[in-house]
Design brief:
It is built from nine helices and no strands. It is mainly α and about 180 residues long. It has a single domain, classed as Orthogonal Bundle (Tetracycline Repressor, domain 2). The longest helix is centred in the middle third of the chain and has 26 residues. InterPro entries: Homeodomain-like_sf, HTH-type_TetR-like_transc_reg, HTH_TetR.
Amino acid sequence: MTRTRFTAQERHGQLVTAALQAFALGGYAGTTTDQVARLAGVSQPYVIRLFGSKQELFLATVRHAGDQIEMKWRAAAAEEPTLRGLGHAYKELLAERELLIVLLHGFGAAEDPAIGEAVRSCYGNLYTVVRELTGATAEEARDFFAMGMLITVLGAMRVLGPDAVEPQPWMADILGTLPRPDTD
């Protein structure tokens, strides 16, 4: 049996993918580098050798999540450079819950100065990208992000998305207020 050798960049990507799963489940405080290593099939010292610390691994994971959202929005804007087009693309990300949940964990851990700086930078970049791609005003972008945060939280709670739970009355009330794809 021969072992496949990965480049450092491929191994880095493999570890960030494993970290995305682990941090989405356990958050920053509740996840260990050993858990990430086991998911990736590598040793824990290798994770530390590549990233230096759990914090740096988490920051790389947050940046990856933000980059994935930005790429999705840029692709959507190539077809329809409107808030509506970007909104539809964001709703598709509900199928990639880990990206959104890792960002929520990042916002929750923002009291840590390094994490706070990273998530503010990520959020600010996404805000700037939305305005750049759509020409939205500050107020329109604010409303877009407010709706996006609601959708993110509802997706994290499995109120929205491909694995949504059976709606309770309060969920149906909120869902009934969301724009419909054919009318928004």
